Amino acid sequence: MTTEAIALSELSGQKGRELGPSAWHTITQHDIDVYADLTGDDNPIHVDEAAAAASPFGGRIAHGMLTLSMVVRPLREIYRVSGATTGIVYGFDRIRFPAPVPSGSRIRVSGRIAEVEERQDAVQVTLALAFEVDGGGAKPAVVAELVLRHFR
């Protein structure tokens, strides 16, 4: 499902290009538990089945930041750049978590190239992304703007 790479020299003409969707990727309870251990975020809605069942979510859900961090694999399927010496995540803007991701759910990522800025040493690209939950309804689980720099 990997998309064809966009040449670095052609990025400036790609504003508005639609990306994806990626393949589906599962967020398991093991992923959630490991993330909770690594970060210290052991909120019961993530790790305690009984407490989570009594919450508005009705069961354990993935951390929003865990879900956001899962962007790498699906992004590689829908967005690639050739001709750069390297690329980095410069940051995220406008991150929101409109809907929960129940433990064991499948997510996929879609988006578009929102901005392209030529810089002296790189091309900076902002991707407007949405994370969809399989069977999760109309609201995305995550919306965010991912800012990448592709160095010449």
Provide an overview of this structure:
This is MaoC family dehydratase. It holds the Pfam family MaoC_dehydratas. InterPro entries: HotDog_dom_sf, MaoC-like_dom, NodN-like. Belongs to the enoyl-CoA hydratase/isomerase family. Residues 15-126 form the MaoC-like domain. The chain is α+β, with helices and mostly antiparallel strands and 152 residues long. The chain has a single domain, classed as Hotdog Thioesterase (Thiol Ester Dehydrase, Chain A), CATH 3.10.129.10. It has helices at residues 29-39, 44-47, 49-53, 64-69, 72-78; strands at 6-7, 18-19, 25-26, 81-82, 86-96, 106-118, 122-133, 142-151. The strands form 2 sheets. Strands 2, 3, 5, 6, 7 and 8 form a 6-stranded antiparallel sheet that branches. A hairpin with a 3-residue loop joins β6 and β7. The longest helix has 11 residues, at 29-39.
Supply the CATH class. Answer: Alpha Beta
CATH architecture annotation: Roll
Poorly predicted tracts of residues: none
- What structural class is derived from the secondary structure elements? alpha+beta
| Overall pLDDT level | 97
Brief summary:
With 152 residues, the protein is of the alpha+beta class.
Short key terms for the protein model shown above:
5 helices; HotDog_dom_sf; 8 strands; single chain; MaoC-like_dom; six-stranded antiparallel beta sheet; 152 residues; Thiol Ester Dehydrase, Chain A
